[in-house]
Amino acid sequence: MRELTLVISGLLWPADSLADACRDLALPALETLLGRGVATTLPPATLDETLAGLWDLPPDSAPYAALRVAGSGGGGEGGDACWMCADPVHLRFARESLVLTDRHELDLALGEARELVDALNGAFADVGEFTIATPGEWNLRLNSAPQLVTHSVAQVLGRSIEPFLPGGPDGAQWRRIINEMQMLLHAHPVNQAREAQGRLAINSVWPWGAGSLGERLPLRHQTVFADTPLARGLARASGGTAGHLPAGFTPAADGSALAVLDSLYYPAVALEVGAWQAALRELETAWFRPLLDALRRRRTSHARIILTGDAACVDIRCGNAGWWKFWQRPLALETFLRQVTPP
Question: Which of 55, 73, 87, 301 has the most beta carbons within 10 angstroms of its beta carbon?
Fold first, then answer.
């Protein structure tokens, strides 16, 4: 494998508790990559926005739903069909504001998702048809393309939803549609059963990322490894090969590859230090250590590590030449993060 790009969400832990998060972490391979690599701090971006940007798509208007459909094999790939992400969420009151909770806390089973989607399709056939990419990621094939300004779930997570509700010429219509969907979901037996079990109800859907695929995208990576349908969809829409994330890094003969590592994301969002450290140790063993060895042995010529975050993003370039720079010592993760992220 000539080149490997790792896109990692959740590694950029908040600065105010960074010392506690990094305490007792032994990450020699990652810290060697950080010390020998060249890091550039970029503006903040979500994982979805970062992936879209790698294929030269405008992050604020990429056809995220159509790409997820292509990546999930759910039908409707290509053509002129307009798709919208319509993700299941839980809305709750916090300090007199409604805030959004996403799939990471919902533990939504596939059977539950199918029942809810069937009910929505029965009631909103005049709007479009819901399909399931994953239990926590739903797409809506629209009967007509809307004129909307929307924001992704990741942009709204944990914040008051009021400033992020659909806007634009069709914003009012879609706010009404969302309210009607909320009433259906509230009364649905799936949610009644979830609440009886002490689980969060799926009490709304969140629309965003509408658009159609259009022309083929430029080929950026021969192979994409990811568990997110969006990344796999980007690969397929550009003529590349897409596969699920393997257990760890193994150099291939040639070509370029991209892997999306998102196991750190939810522990970071939820500020769960123990889970975050455990996931980071697993990445050290499965990805960073083998990658470091492949660079040293010249089985991989270049590596790019992109860290996404809502305070900043970081682009780290590592190449074979870096291993001759013996004076560049490993850089402790806490030190690195304090250097590249704003206070």
Answer: 87
What is the rounded distance in angstroms from the CA atom of residue 46 to the CA atom of residue 77?
Answer: 24
**Angle in degrees, 0-180, between the axes of helices 64-72 and 229-237, rounded to the nearest 10:** 90
Report CA 112 to chain centroid distance, whole Å: 22
Q: Tens digits of per-residue pLDDT, 245-302?
A: 999 998 765 678 999 999 999 999 999 999 999 999 999 999 999 999 998 888 888 9
Q: Letter for the amino acid at 22?
A: C
Tokens of 125: 């056939």
Question: Cα separation of 26 and 43, whole Å?
Answer: 29
Helices (H) then strands (E): counts for the chain: 14, 12
Q: What per-residue confidence (pLDDT) applies to 40?
A: 95
Report the residue count for the chain. 343
Residues 6+ apart with CB under 8 A from 216: 237, 238, 239
DSSP 160: B
| Element spanning 256, H or E | strand 256-261
CA distance 116 to 153: 19
Q: Burial, 203: exposed, middle or buried (Cβ in 10 Å; 0-12, 13-18, 19+)?
A: buried
pLDDT confidence of residue 322 = 55
Distance CA 97, CA 113 (A): 27
What are the Cα distances from residue 53, in Å, to 42, 84, 130, 199, 331? 12, 19, 27, 36, 28
